[in-house]
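Case study 2.
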Amino acid sequence: MISSVRLRTPTFTSSQFSTQKCSFGKTEFCSLPNIQNAKQSITHSLSSHKPLYISSAESFALVAKTQKRGDLTECKVYEADRSRPIEINIDLPDQQARKETAQTLKISIYFATWWALNVVFNIYNKKVLNVFPFPWLTSTLSLATGSLMMLISWAVGIAEAPKTDLDFWKTLFPVAVAHSIGHVAATVSMANVAVSFTHIIKSGEPAFSVLVSRFLLGETFPTSVYLSLLPIIGGCALAAVTEINFNMIGFMGAMISNLAFVFRNIFSKKGMKGKSVSGMNYYACLSMLSLLILIPFAIAVEGPQAWAAGWKTALAQIGPNFVWWVAAQSIFYHLYNQVSYMSLDQISPLTFSIGNTMKRISVIVSSIIIFRTPIQPVNCLGAAIAVLGTFLYSQGNKGNKK
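Prediction:
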């Protein structure tokens, strides 16, 4: 309860109270008089059995004895039965701990879902490419399926459609170009080499990021970041040299994908500052624009006639399950990317980078087991060194990712 002040001055009148102005004389701490029958008479004193509380008082202080006569101080009061409790939003230790636990659980679910969807995508993608070696069409179908899923989600109200303008699409265009190149290049790689080998080479993406940022953008990094490039480059080189089924097209596809995704991240970081579209809607817009860019190139490189012949051959070999494989790889491609962008909304770029490193480990291990990929101990060592270097890169780059 707020302490109040008894005023040893002429009593308040209703007109004086209505203007909330009064003069202070000698003061002492006690209970405020209460208001009763304020409307009875303008000449009567104000009193009541209901206590008054001070709700605000500007420039309120104990008045010195030498205060000039006639000085006024404005204050506001309210009756106790009309008062409302003050709402104070204070997180108690237990509440704060529960919030942190809930956030950790939420991020863990995001990561587990992201990794699981990515593993499933890579398995079905490789199955499709083994019997239908048309990476350009396969990449196009992945983007088309994701775009269709989001258009339906917006139409039925599952997700709120983003508010975009021409400037948004202009800044998104270079991001979409880089995304299209990186996606197709990675698919071309997986069509020619083992999934594990593609992801071992793609674990060298941080090296491309540092080199591009240093020599094209003039950014500098801590010494620990430059040192982390040694195991990344060395591990990837060791894995490539010892790869049993080495293929130059597959190797170059993974390298081009690394470079393209580095530029995609740079363009995205520079172009999307201040934009309100984020998370799954941002990736949906990126997929749609990338699809429009990719379609004419896919037709020019492979062509409908080759697609039709390849489709008949795949159906003859696999049967109706082939259609499910194509649908699954397209759906899971969009879902894992969508969840990854949703994860990035909840965590720091550093945590996301570490999660991406762990994701590659899960893909490499699962693909080796499922496809029974022959691998030599030296090849395993190279992969482990490259992944370790990526982890060290993430740790050394903390200052740049805050």
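The beta strands are 4-7, 21-23, 27-30, 52-57, 72-79.
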